[in-house]
């Protein structure tokens, strides 16, 4: 089963359906379908990956930024730099859209 790792601070907003996308670089292309969101504190949530796309931060719409759980591109950019300090604005981001599946 596909497993996507998240920082524990995203657990609640993923569980509540407020974060339905994650932006990644340097990771393999995830297959569509059922997967598991694994968090840094050991918790997990079942998810379904529904779409994969590739855009730069500048190409992202505000709706896509909000799907990622942020209000502005600047907030998302700051968070991405925390995970990927070498990220450049013209680097393509893999946008993984998903939905939480509660059993």
From TrEMBL:
SMART domains: ASCH (SM01022). InterPro entries: ASCH_domain (IPR007374), PUA-like_sf (IPR015947). Pfam families: ASCH (PF04266). Residues 4-102 form the ASCH domain. Gene3D superfamilies: Hypothetical protein (2.30.130.30). It comes from the Bacteria. This is ASCH domain-containing protein. It comes from Ancylomarina subtilis.
């Amino acid at each position: 089963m596909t497993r996507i790792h998240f920082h524990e601070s995203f657990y609640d907003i993923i569980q509540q359906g407020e974060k339905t996308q994650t932006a990644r670089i340097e990771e393999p292309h995830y297959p569509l379908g059922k997967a598991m969101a694994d968090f840094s504190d050991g918790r997990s949530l079942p998810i379904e990956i529904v779409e994969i796309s590739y855009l730069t931060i500048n190409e992202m719409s505000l709706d896509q930024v909000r799907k990622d759980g942020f209000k502005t591109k600047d907030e998302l950019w700051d968070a991405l730099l925390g995970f990927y300090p070498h990220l450049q604005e013209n680097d393509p981001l893999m946008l993984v859209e998903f939905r939480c599946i509660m059993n």
